[in-house]
């Protein structure tokens, strides 16, 4: 095998959406940056998560929207064409070809190293290329770990070749019968998508509701909608046995006793595929972290600069799923912008301007990075209590900031404001029988919005206004002067303020 020795200012492990953004931002003051990726540039989001899953979900959304409007509904005479949906999904996922992503990366002046990296010492790695090349790579300034996460598959399913989100979003076959194990974002979205495509879907949830991280009414709305479309949603379950028998998977499912019944109930369920969506864990197993005094398999604990704690020298950073702080592409890219700017400023290779300690990115100095306060571009402050999340089920669910329970656990006195979207003029224009709900969690002492949850068709596009309110800590008295356009769903902000007596 050929051996090569390379040296760069910054080395980024992982070329997904997070790693790409880190590398781009870190290079903006002239630092040389290499990105190490063993698979496809663009990562999970582009090929097995955000993009293909939304391509699977979109046809059902469009069809439901048309059927909800008299006049348009009469034009809908057929059903979803699964084959055509999968063809379009392939196009959205670029046919799992990263040529375009590689062109962007290299066009930005970044170096791509195809292979797997392992630490051998601080700022030193060995990269085993897919072509057999072994590179010794040294980072003069910083290394950023952006390797993402991998699905957690319980041992019960070890021998049945279950689907994870990867297999589900890239399949070219719609299974007649599908069991979905889990009740979170991946489980509910893919249950929705495959029900639209014609699968007989059963959702097996360990807990007592769907979308446990959201307000309870959100998960209840999604469960009702799935049930109305013929999906079985079984709460309080555990799969005690899973056996693959030819083209079928046989499951033994135990359900906790419900009111009026005694003892657990056991059900035998036969399906064509089982999708395990029970969570993900940081992809840190095979990075050689033990050489740095860190434990493989664990999340990398970071501060708000995204600098890994427990490693001296200020050279090791991490961003995205691998930190355990965030589990969405958009929040991971936010973290990537922060850490990229920190590195660009801290290690700015350009000479300091006369009378200045250093120019840093966009005229900001190294000193500015070192002294940056929360909510500056050098601190990932939003990770604490301003994280937005969208679930593209039908109805959609979108929330940002604290839920009611989280605010109470934080010891805050809160007021809850809620409004049914169906009462708005914009709702009657949007769809016949529009149903949805918005809820705000308000800090009584400061009179600012701590969190917001939206449930209903197309509410994802309403979330950013709430995100701005949460991040900006805008007083409700000032929000009264943010006049919503009529007739739109955003009029709900006025109704909520009226309910609060503002």
From TrEMBL:
Keyword Protein biosynthesis: no
Disordered as annotated region, ranges: 348-368
Cofactors: FAD
Domain FAD/NAD(P)-binding: start-end pairs: 8-331
Pfam families xref list: Pyr_redox_2, Pyr_redox_dim
Similarity annotation: Belongs to the class-I pyridine nucleotide-disulfide oxidoreductase family.
Protein name as catalogued: NAD(P)/FAD-dependent oxidoreductase
Lineage of origin: Bacteria, Bacillati, Actinomycetota, Actinomycetes, Micrococcales
